[in-house]
Write a structure and sequence with these properties.
CATH class of one domain: Mainly Beta
Strand content: 15-25%
Low-confidence stretches: 183-195, 207-231, 280-332
Helix content: 25-40%
Protein name: Fe2OG dioxygenase domain-containing protein
GO molecular function, one term: zinc ion binding
CATH architecture of one domain: Sandwich
Keywords: Metal-binding, Zinc, Zinc-finger
Pfam family, one: 2OG-FeII_Oxy_2
Mean pLDDT: 76
Number of helices: 21
Distance between the termini: 98 Å
Radius of gyration: 31 Å
Strand order of the largest sheet: 7-19-16-21-14-10-13
CATH superfamily of one domain: Alpha-ketoglutarate-dependent dioxygenase AlkB-like
Number of strands: 24
Shape: elongated
Structural class: alpha+beta
CATH topology of one domain: Jelly Rolls
InterPro entries: AlkB-like, AlkB-like_sf, ALKBH3, CUE, Oxoglu/Fe-dep_dioxygenase_dom, Znf_GRF
Length: 690
């Protein structure tokens, strides 16, 4: 006797979905006869959506990837709630999920919903999909445009302000029906309706919403799904816009504000024909026609969300209670948190929260590509710097080379200038394209220095020890990071020849990587604060410890291709920076997984190796800045570094370094009165060659 009992969970929603949306298509003769291709596998083996991308702003590539991850995660989390079934069935659903993204800047940039609908139809026609009942995912597609990414950016900004993970399930997306209007059911759309359905709508990834079918009577128009009061304004507007597509966003926003942010009340008001007509008329009369948004969907600034106190006038000391209030306000403005990384993208946020400024799309695209190709060829001859650490010889996790202007300077770099306690062997002469762009770098960096002094530094004056002279690069360190695993740990750049308050211009080419910075906090700050605390309040001590730990939180600056990062005068003394390893990277069309980084530096003539002190080992001492001890923080010192050279043994040489207010050394015993040779400025050497 045959056991006709059905397997457990055979009629579960998850299994029914698998049978109808996945297994059924794979058994269709017409689909099985399609030639092997990724498109056939996508149709017959998966159940994910088809997505069209119509925005190609500079930051959209990164945002698209973030959006798709949020979409996948939202779907994964919703499966047990929407499609109940066994653990095996749910696991199978997760394994079968896959989305197909159409991305072509040439054909899809800035197109409207009608164009996407036709493209979606033509794609299916080209596949020769047989005349069968198509699953839902092949009857409609999704659209990611500027408005969708802008709404997502608002959600990410809100999460960054609250220092928490962004809930991307609140992101909206546009859904477009391909068979619209339905040729078999022309009565499905009535031209007499006040709000005719256009065949596309806006939905929210993680919010359950009713299908936006049109009602014959405007007064019974369905209200948008209930939005919690803590939802962002962008999400509420997306819900209203999906129901009232003919009302402009300005009118919807005015109505939403008048209803105290309640989507239900706003929907009720707009459902009245007279009120809706008035809103549409007023918005048309008070606003000018707008072009389709083609601006960059870059993360908006964090600054509007921060209440900033006016800059103090440091020329007069503040009373102690006012100083405490000011410190509390500064701590409230601090966005970093212990154990978390704050990601910054916009130039405004980077300049406000870090000692850096960034210029995106710095060079003309062709110039940047030509320079990248030139340095990729050069990088084949780079080497990895070796040094000694805890009596073991280790090497840098990336390759590099030093570039100077002339062959004479090459000899100086290999026999007089030291780096990390040793002479550099991999020194090369500056390439033609590096020389060509050096003038642009010099001008841009000096402009950023001028703005930094004017807008950020106290009283609009340069920092103490910062040079008032024009920044003129004469040495360049070129680094190559071949793949996501290559990196460099947190460090401050060596100041031996740069001098105090050095400025460095860093040009990034190729694959995008994260540049992380963190503030250096003195080790004994906490002990000092405890001594000054007369009440010895345990709660206050814990708050200070937490604030101190938060101050050292990491900040991530994303460095895309063709971006210039300026590390300003406070960077090396008060912060540390790193290129951290990455799990994956988005390959660059020219460099693949490689990143080329040019750090332009200005070696001061007054710090030539002829003048700098030597330790008892007979090697050149290096210049460092004290960072950890509160009583010596900010002072400079000459130290022996011979122990870091492979096989070397150092000595205990130590000498405080003295500088005038412009950062020029004050030598107690100058080793020589001879005039040392100087390094040629890259721009000057270019002019002399011409």
């Amino acid at each position: 006797m045959t056991d006709s009992a059905e397997p457990p969970n055979f009629h579960s929603p998850a299994n029914i979905f698998l049978q109808k949306e996945v297994y059924r298509l794979g058994s269709q003769p017409g689909l099985r006869s399609l030639p092997p291709s990724p498109e056939r596998d996508f149709i017959t083996l998966t159940w994910g959506p088809v997505i069209y991308r119509t925005t190609y702003a500079p930051e959209s590539q990164r945002l698209i990837l973030l959006y798709l991850r949020g979409l996948s995660e939202t779907i994964r989390k919703s499966l047990p709630r929407i499609l109940e079934g066994s653990s095996e069935q749910l696991a199978r659903l997760e394994q079968c999920y896959s989305s197909k993204v159409f991305s072509s800047q040439e054909t899809l940039h800035g197109v409207d919903e009608g164009f996407v609908r036709n493209a979606f139809h033509d794609w299916k026609v080209a596949l020769s999909v047989p005349a069968i009942e198509l699953p839902v995912r092949l009857r409609m597609c999704m659209l990611i445009d500027d408005a969708v990414l802008a709404a997502m950016t608002g959600i990410v900004d809100e999460a960054a302000r609250e220092v928490e993970d962004a809930d991307l399930s609140r992101c909206p997306i546009k859904v477009i029906e391909e068979n619209f209007p339905d040729v078999n059911h022309p009565e499905s759309v009535s031209a007499a309706e006040d709000e005719p359905y256009s065949g596309s709508t806006m939905v929210v990834l993680g919010t359950k919403r009713p299908r936006l079918a049109q009602s014959p009577q405007p007064s019974t128009q369905p209200a948008p799904a209930s939005a919690p009061d803590d939802e962002s304004t962008e999400v509420k507007l997306a819900l209203l816009l999906s129901v009232f597509p003919n009302v402009t966003q300005e009118a919807l926003l005015d109505t939403l504000v008048s209803c105290s942010g309640s989507v239900e009340e706003a929907s009720s008001v707009l459902s009245t024909p007279q009120q809706r007509e008035t809103a549409s008329t007023e918005s048309t009369a008070t606003t000018t026609p707008k072009r389709r948004a083609t601006s960059s969907a870059i993360q908006t600034s964090l600054l509007p969300h921060i209440i900033c106190s006016p800059k103090p006038n440091t020329s007069h000391p503040l009373p102690k209670n006012l100083q405490q209030q000011q410190q509390q306000q500064q701590q409230q403005q601090l966005l970093t948190r212990k154990g978390r990384t704050l990601h910054l993208y916009t130039p405004r946020d980077i300049a406000h929260h870090t000692p850096c400024t960034i210029i995106h799309n710095f060079l003309p695209p062709h110039t940047a590509s030509t320079l990248l190709q030139e340095l990729l060829s050069e990088s084949l001859h780079f080497s990895r710097h070796k040094f000694q650490l805890f009596e073991r010889t280790v090497q840098s996790p990336h390759s590099a080379s030093v570039y100077v202007s002339t062959p004479e300077e090459y000899h100086q770099q290999t026999s007089e200038y030291t780096y990390g306690g040793t002479y550099r062997s991999n020194v090369r002469q500056i390439t033609p394209h590096m020389c060509d762009v050096s003038g642009k770098v010099q001008y841009a960096v000096n402009e950023e220095i001028r703005r930094r002094i004017r807008d950020v530094y106290p009283r609009g004056e340069k920092l103490r020890y910062q040079s008032p002279r024009m920044w003129k690069p004469n040495v360049a360190f070129v680094n190559c990071y071949d793949g996501p695993a290559e990196s460099v740990g947190f460090h401050s750049d060596e100041l031996t020849y740069l001098g105090p308050r050095a400025v460095i211009g860093s040009l990034s080419l190729g694959v995008e990587r994260e540049f992380r910075v963190r503030r250096v906090v003195a080790d004994d700050d906490e002990e000092k604060e405890e001594e000054e605390d007369d009440d010895n309040d345990t709660v206050a001590q814990k708050q200070k410890q937490t604030a101190r730990a938060d101050a050292q939180g990491q900040i991530s600056i994303h460095l895309p291709h063709n971006s210039l990062l300026v590390m300003h005068a406070e960077m090396q003394e008060e912060w540390k920076h790193a290129i951290t390893p990455a799990r994956t990277v988005n390959p660059h069309p020219v460099s693949g997984n490689r990143r080329i980084n040019i750090t332009y530096r200005w070696y001061r003539d007054s710090l030539h190796p002829w003048y700098t002190p030597k330790c008892r080992c007979g090697t050149h001492a290096i210049l460092r800045c004290a960072q950890r001890k509160r009583e010596t923080r900010g002072r400079y010192m000459w130290m022996c570094y011979a122990g870091y050279a492979p096989g070397g043994k150092g000595c205990s040489f130590f000498q405080w370094a003295e500088f005038d207010d412009d950062g020029e050394p004050l030598w107690a015993n100058k080793p020589t009165e001879e005039q040392a040779p100087t390094l040629a400025n890259f721009v000057a050497s270019q002019l002399s060659d011409d």
